[in-house]
Amino acid sequence: MAFSANQTYAAGPKFSENFPKKTISTLLKPHNLPTLNPCKKNHLLPQHKPLYISSATGFGPARIRDPFSMRCNAYEAGRSQPIAPISIGFDREEAAQKAKIGVYFATWWALNVVFNIYNKKVLNVFPFPWLTSTLSLAAGSLIMLGSWATNIAQPPETDLHFWKNLLPVAVAHTIGHVAATVSMSKVAVSFTHIIKSGEPAFTVLVSRFLMGETFPLSVYLSLLPIIGGCALSAATELNFNLTGFMGAMLSNLAFVFRNIFSKRGMSKGKSSSVGGMNYYACLSILSLLIVTPFAIAVEGPHLWAVGWQNALSQIGPNFIWWVVAQSVFYHLYNQVSYMSLNEISPLTFSIGNTMKRISVIVVSIIIFQTPLQPINALGAAIAISGTFLYSQAKQ
User: Fold this and answer.
1) Considering only Cβ atoms within 10 Å of each terminal Cβ, which end of the chain, N or C, has fewer?
2) Residue 56, phi then psi, degrees to nearest 5
3) pTM score of the predicted model
């Protein structure tokens, strides 16, 4: 088929149906193909040189055609062989992968919102963050051990080397989890997440100075609104608490190390055969072993018993449901997040983690009726906008 190089042509769904039932090799000879009507100009191609179709695939009958594999290649007249062929195609696997990650992110964000609501409800009447953190890890460990025992989930194949690689991840995870819970027990949910929206800044700094990675100038510039917005929110917070602020900052740093170490661990040795779901299950079990003795030493069973009775007298049996809900949803949202981390880079994970905080901040302000000054809201908006700029700079 010959046509002018300054024109492109479109074939609708009936294009293939109009062809006689002959072989493609016969139909695609340049001298006997039908002429198609032009639909728009393309100024990127050389002018006034005819193009010939060199190959065409995916134009079969509609009932058997694969819409993700239609391709049409062309070459300039006067050339002995095609050069720089023009292809139009769709990658089915890439589209499916993007959809899969999108579902992971949406589920992760929804579960995280529910966890934060119940976690704050528990901490308001039972201010023992060490025990609350321990119960969250215990719930996840029991869920996965039960799944393995009943063959609902395939148990992972691990060895001593796997657990040695997992240890630094578990330490970072434990520190980040407890620090975030301590912060939530001292300040509003919205404030904790505004401060934690600065995680990309910690990711870049750790990756640059400790991991030796380099980034373009636009990435560093995008950190300025993130840091500035967090600082503005902290300075104007009505119920500012230094312990809560430092807990959120420490949680940021710890989780950055956790994400980096996790990505490394899931690509080495036995760890590479352990999927995201099982990887987080093993992480929960090891973190539970780490945090339990510290929880007993810092708070202790006596304080827990007194606090538990006080919470039951204030809330009633619903308090037990709150504890169960915050523990189970903590495991579920982290499990889904690790399934996402198994598919993406730590930096992309940090971006998704920060964008997730928008929904948490908004929902928590509505449910807990958190007082918010306009200048405080402006700081949050600047920080979140900086995160968007950061994601664009990373592309």
Assistant:
1) C
2) -150, 130
3) 0.71
